[in-house]
Design brief:
The protein has 170 residues and is of the alpha/beta class. It has one domain: Rossmann fold (3-Layer(aba) Sandwich), CATH 3.40.50.1010. It is 33% helix and 25% strand. Helix 3 links the parallel strand 2 and strand 3.
Length: 170
């Protein structure tokens, strides 16, 4: 069943101001593992924004030296996403480290007083304390992700959960 949600602020005649924070790796691998597909980032943004006013949309990317993501980054930039990128770190023991959890947390806290709603595009349960803190500051926090790969705690902590459906895939 498709969830519908109101994208207007019922207490104000002006559209909600939103900030969008996309954990690209989380969403990319969820789409790949669940649907063997890729996400349509234009449709994703259109669905999230609706008739609201987007203040900022940031896509957080972890790059590997052996994969050229310049075309993908160009597409995201043309769609209106700011890009924050870092290299995947490979440790001496062979394990790898590459996530943007702290960056997403810092950026969303920084903008929280300038927006009505923070939209977190990730299913990562590590964001539960962030969601709770943003809500305590008075922000509405929407989580957009694939339900099958999302932390149940994250879904429960959100003001609203919007599942990514197959219609948003390429």
């Amino acid at each position: 069943m498709e969830q519908r949600y109101d994208t207007t602020n019922i207490y104000c005649q002006f559209p909600q101001r939103i900030g969008i924070f996309v954990d690209v790796q989380n969403i990319f691998y969820s789409a790949k593992n669940i649907f063997h597909s890729k996400i349509n980032f234009k449709k994703l943004m259109d669905m999230i924004v609706g008739n609201r006013h987007m203040i900022r949309a940031i896509a957080y990317i972890v790059q590997r030296s052996d994969i050229d993501q310049s075309g993908f980054i160009d597409v995201l930039t043309r769609l209106g996403y700011e890009i924050k990128s870092k290299e995947l770190i490979t440790r001496q023991d062979g394990t790898a480290k590459g996530d943007w959890d702290m960056g997403i947390a810092i950026d969303s806290i920084a903008i929280s007083e300038k927006v009505d709603t923070i939209v977190l595009v990730s299913g990562d349960g590590d964001f539960v304390p962030l969601v709770e803190m943003l809500k305590a500051k008075g922000c509405r926090v929407e989580v957009v992700s694939f339900e099958r790969s999302s932390s149940q705690e994250l879904i429960k902590s959100a003001s609203w959960f919007i599942p990514i459906e197959e219609s948003l895939l390429l």
